[in-house]
Every structure is written in structure tokens, then in C-alpha cells.
Please model this.
Amino acid sequence: MEAIEDAEDVVALRTAEAREKEIGKEAARADHLSVELVMRLMAGEHPVRIWREQRGLSPQALADKAGVGRSYLVEIEGRKKPGSVAAYRRLANALGVAVDELLPPKPS
Model:
């Protein structure tokens, strides 16, 4: 099992290096979260807020871009409302990420 995981890691690294070579390091790493943002994500902060900040958007700017209400977005980020599937799709489109990246982890 360990050898398989090591081989997968090598493939992932080579794929990342090839992508960086092809489109440039900055473009290839544009979707990487900083250590700070990853730590906040791991601490339970809502992924929508993390990706919104990664993209440098205010709540109003993201709401406008996604076509959702600002107050609704703030309630989703604050976990006061779960958010609809349609809202998550719009937010994902506006942020340029997969919907899965925005879904908060399920409580254990």
C-alpha cells in the first residue's frame, strides 16, 4: 500500500511540474491555497469564505458576480443557512472552482 501511495505521489508531482512548465509557475499555482488559508479551512472556516478571499473578492463582489444576495452569501459563510445547490453552483462558477471545493465538511 505504501509503495502505491509513493508512486501516486511521484505521478502527481511530475504532473504538477509539467503543468508549471507548460503554462508557467504563477498560472499553475493560482488555485493553490496559502498555508494560512488551509489552516483556517482545517479550523472549520467555511470554504466559500476561504475561496472568496483567495480570489480577492468582497462579499458584495462575489454576490454580484454569482447572482446571489449578499445577505444570503454572508449567511452561508456564517453557517446560518446551508445554501441551496443552485447557490453553490453559482458561487463555484463565479470563483472558478468545482462545487466540491465549496462544500463544508459533514459533521462527524
Observations:
- The longest helix spans residues 2-23.
- Helices lie at 2-23, 25-28, 35-42, 47-54, 59-66, 70-77, 85-95, 99-102.
